[in-house]
Design brief:
The protein is α+β, with helices and mostly antiparallel strands. 29% of the residues lie in helices and 16% in strands. It has helices at 21-27, 57-69, 129-138, 151-157, 196-209, 231-254, and strands at 79-83, 89-92, 106-109, 115-117, 144-148, 164-167, 185-190, 216-219, 223-228.
Length: 255
């Protein structure tokens, strides 16, 4: 396994089985409850974020706009989140264009999915917030989680018959933390479900038991999710994984 996946916690004991009533009422969907993990550089036991903590929303807006320009977040697809020192996280609200986001189009959720901050009544949590919960629970060092929907990711997810996509052993793989000579790297591939919490449950169940090769996973006919220790690292990893997807598609086209 790659050193990039050292963010995984082998001792993860989070459960996605119980449902959080507050999140369900706010989002209109069932969001699985994941026990908060202790305690890393960006997670402390506190119900109120430190007011001195920088607001990550402007940076998330900037990255979302860039992804929208590249065609990775068209329509209202995808979502970006950043975790605060208290373990809660800001995430893009449901149904918002990622090319025209404002700070009011985010919600803040607790590690268990409770709605903590709702800047406007129109700002609702996305069902895909459950995926972000799963990632933060399984990888305590992760402080940002980005989920985008691109054409290359969707196409490649349909050209794999099993539950892994082989990534090319080229220089760009280093951007995902893989520094081995001629590495064999597999990207975990999960089935898509209309009820997104089912996807989150599958991700959490697998990553609690098996450390992924890279800090990313692919959902068939859906999109890719990456995570990192900061929004900048998550942004870079989205760019790297999308480059690898384009490389694989180009190789199939010209082979």
């Amino acid at each position: 396994m790659s050193s990039a996946s050292s963010a995984s916690s082998a001792s993860a004991s989070s459960s996605l089985g119980s449902q959080d009533a507050s999140a369900s009422a706010a989002a209109g969907v069932t969001v699985p409850s994941i026990d908060p993990r202790s305690i890393d550089s960006c997670s402390q036991d506190s119900s109120t974020p430190d007011p001195s903590t920088p607001d990550p929303r402007p940076q998330l807006i900037h990255h979302a706009h860039a992804f929208h320009q590249r065609g990775w977040m068209f329509g209202t697809a995808g979502n970006l989140s950043a975790k605060l020192p208290d373990g809660s996280f800001w995430i893009t609200a449901s149904g918002c264009s990622k090319g025209e986001l404002t700070p009011l189009q985010f919600v803040r959720l607790s590690a268990t999915g409770e709605l903590l901050t709702q800047p406007t009544p129109a700002a609702k949590p996305s069902a895909e917030a459950s995926i972000h919960q799963a990632i933060y629970a399984c990888f305590p060092e992760a402080c940002a989680c980005y989920h985008v929907h691109s054409v290359p990711a969707t196409l490649l997810s349909n050209r794999v018959v099993d539950d892994q996509l082989a990534l090319p052993a080229i220089e760009m793989i280093k951007g995902l933390g893989v520094w081995n000579e001629n590495p064999v790297v597999k990207l975990a591939l999960f089935p898509n479900h209309l009820q997104v919490p089912r996807i989150a449950e599958a991700i959490a169940a697998q990553f609690r038991e098996q450390t992924p090769d890279v800090p990313a996973c692919l959902i068939r006919n859906h999109g890719v999710t990456v995570w990192g220790a900061s929004p900048e690292e998550a942004r870079n990893r989205v760019e790297v994984i999308e480059f690898l997807f384009q490389y694989l598609l180009a190789g199939q086209l010209y082979s």
